[in-house]
Design goal:
There is one protein chain. This protein is mostly beta strands and about 250 residues long. Strands 1, 2, 3, 13, 14, 15, 16 and 17 form an eight-stranded antiparallel beta sheet that branches. The chain folds into two domains: about 140 residues, no CATH class; about 80 residues, Thrombin, subunit H (Beta Barrel), CATH 2.40.10. A hairpin with an 8-residue loop joins β14 and β15.
């Protein structure tokens, strides 16, 4: 679909792709934020391989990490590049994150600029970071790192309470298309049960994947927002105020 400025809220947010557009070609960095003057916020997202319905909760591929990995070679302070042992080359780590989980350099996290297959072995991935290494990393398991996809890469319909919700598509999204995923502010969302006005909302269970429901049990589930409109009706789309990522 066509791109262009989005004039939602009265003031244009200049983008290459409007909030009601989806695009097969990437127009922005995955995870890039767009905020409108009425308080709504969106993150640029990539559909993970199945048609996404409008107004249903989605989770991201970031919810699964690329295991705990060792380094085949040590990495000096100030370096932006490193090689990480992975089960197979991963070409989709751009805009994701790397954290040093244990050993030398532990506690630091870095944003990933790009990734590509290692030329020497099929079981390693070459990583380029946005920022330089702060504490030298040591090979052979002394430094252990974990790679994570960007939260808005490879999003799919939520199908497990164990996976955090990253937003709501404001449109139906074709397979493998890029779109703006709403993460904050008023939006119509698929609703389960009958949440009252102002009641805080959490994910529904497996009987209504992709839906919000009331948090009447005061659970420890992720709080997604609160009900803005009238009392919700089961399987309807109610106006809620999202509070996932501003």
């Amino acid at each position: 679909m066509s791109g262009g400025p989005s004039y939602q809220g009265g003031v244009p947010a200049v983008t290459k792709q409007g909030i009601f557009d989806s695009h097969v070609t990437q127009q922005h960095r995955v995870g890039e934020v767009m905020r409108l003057n009425d308080g709504r916020a969106f993150r640029y997202a990539y559909n993970g391989g199945a048609v996404l319905a409008v107004g249903k909760l989605v989770t991201g591929l970031a919810c699964t990490q690329v295991a705990k990995n060792v380094l085949p070679a040590s990495v000096a302070i100030g370096s932006y590049e490193l090689t990480v042992v992975t089960a197979a080359a991963d070409l989709n780590m751009a805009e994701g994150y790397m954290n040093v989980e244990s050993g030398t350099g532990l506690g630091y996290s870095y944003k990933i600029k790009s990734s590509k297959a290692n030329a020497a072995t099929a079981t390693s991935t070459d990583i380029v970071l946005y920022d330089p290494i702060q504490v030298a990393l040591v090979s052979g398991g002394t430094s252990v790192v974990t790679l994570h996809y960007n939260p808005w890469y490879g999003v799919v319909l939520q199908a497990s309470m164990a996976l955090p919700v990253v937003g709501v598509p404001p449109i139906a999204v074709p397979i493998n298309y890029y779109f703006w995923c709403q993460t904050w502010g008023p939006v119509a969302v698929y609703t389960g049960q009958t949440p009252a006005i102002s009641m805080r909302l959490v994910s529904s269970d497996s009987t209504l994947w992709g839906a919000v429901t009331d948090d009447a049990a005061a659970s420890f589930d992720q709080i997604l927002g609160y009900n803005m409109g009238d009392t919700g009706a089961n399987t309807n789309y109610n106006l809620i105020y999202l509070t996932i990522a501003p």
